[in-house]
Known about the structure:
Keywords: ATP-binding, Cytoplasm, Ligase, Nucleotide-binding, Purine biosynthesis. With 332 residues, the chain is of the alpha+beta class.
Amino acid sequence: xxxxxxxxxxxxxxxxxxxxxxxxxxxxxxxxxxxxxxxxxxxxxxxxxxxxxxxxxxxxxxxxxxxxxxxxxxxxxxxxxxxxxxxxxxxxxxxxxxxxxxxxxxxxxxxxxxxxxxxxxxxxxxxxxxxxxxxxxxxxxxxxxxxxxxxxxxxxxxxxxxxxxxxxxxxxxxxxxxxxxxxxxxxxxxxxxxxxxxxxxxxxxxxxxxxxxxxxxxxxxxxxxxxxxxxxxxxxxxxxxxxxxxxxxxxxxxxxxxxxxxxxxxxxxxxxxxxxxxxxxxxxxxxxxxxxxxxxxxxxxxxxxxxxxxxxxxxxxxxxxxxxxxxxxxxx
Length: 332
């Protein structure tokens, strides 16, 4: 008789992983959480704080950045990336994240590694003010190599229908404010991995692998504070596709985003990647280049918003403006 364990799936290790994960998930629980980890489904009570509530959802994964984590055996930050990629997306429509669920798959489950990954997911949820209310860990021997993990998840947020940010209020002359990124974030790693083979090489006094693993910045708390105070006409999360693909996603009409590429600090890691043989256009079409989130705001509010972001400890720049007609992005 063949057992499930002999087939490669260790149920006991799964139980151990869940037990270790509970410590981290409990730290994320907010007022609306109705169930504890281990139920068949997560439950969250919206309450009556909203007049006409709209649920906003987003899903994403960490991608091939995971390979660097595996090679460096550093697992506690990639969960932050997973949360960030989801909550930053739903934030673009003015939504406050409510809860998050993760999906982790592997060839052979190591409870300690799985718990470290979920520790990062928990930290991402804490940074964004949402609750980790469930998830799935799938052990799939023969499908994933031993030591490999895949990580994805989804977030659900909420916004009053009247307060949805959909780009309909954007007008010619609006200012574009860019909030600094923390690094490469979680896009473009297939190209990074082609260009950089030794993750232990020195990069400005640190190993380059650590620089590449810097977790994606979560913009939820500072941006939600701005939304309470100002009219934010549009927002863009600079992910895969860089400036050229993501900034126009905030437009509903024909506008061109005029970007001054000298208006902000391009992070050293991007200059290094470009030196490896990537054109400037491809860099701006793949990476965030040092700007992870863009706000489209009334010109009259520009200086006050920049000041408020500075007071919140955020690096932010006026990176350009909106011009009627045309379409896409014009870098100058």
